[in-house]
From TrEMBL:
This is Pentatricopeptide repeat-containing protein. InterPro entries: E_motif (IPR046848), PPR_At4g14850-like_plant (IPR046960). It holds the Pfam family E_motif. One of its GO terms (molecular function) is RNA binding. One of its GO terms (biological process) is RNA modification. The lineage of its organism: Eukaryota, Viridiplantae, Streptophyta, Embryophyta, Tracheophyta. It comes from the Eukaryota. PANTHER family: PENTATRICOPEPTIDE REPEAT-CONTAINING PROTEIN, TETRATRICOPEPTIDE-LIKE HELICAL DOMAIN SUPERFAMILY, DYW DOMAIN-CONTAINING PROTEIN.
Amino acid sequence: MNMGFNLPQTTMLCAVNLFDQAGQLTEAYQLVNEVPHNLLGACRVHQNVELGEIAANNLLRLEPNLASHYIPLANIYPSAGLWEKAVEVRENMMRKEVRKEPGCSWIEFGDGVHRFTAGDESLPHGEQLLNFLEILLEKLKKEGYVHETCVLRAILMRRKRKTLCVVTARD
């Protein structure tokens, strides 16, 4: 019988078997539970809506209050032009009171290491830091990098809108 396993799946099954033989069932369970989440992440990267929905639904059946099961699906939809479905996912999260902790980043710049979140405009040297990130993003693009999320783009667009508002207000 052809089970359709490719090498990584076979390797995972071997690992589960090894955990089983060692009596480490908790580790085997954790490994198996990681698979749908990894599949959901892969579907986001490869913009596979159908498999992403299946993986997300399986995860949500197990853990309906975990934001990390909703967010990748909400990010898959816009890349496929399905903006309304993305809004539905976010609304579903709000209805169920599922909240995502904001992600943060650290960057060494000027006089030290600075922590920031998307939309954070209270950074010391904020304007200089945004200029630095713009230059860095352009260098990365020239090297062929395509960023997965649109957070930096959203920050830069918000910044451009503010500039346009100031210029328009002056006229």
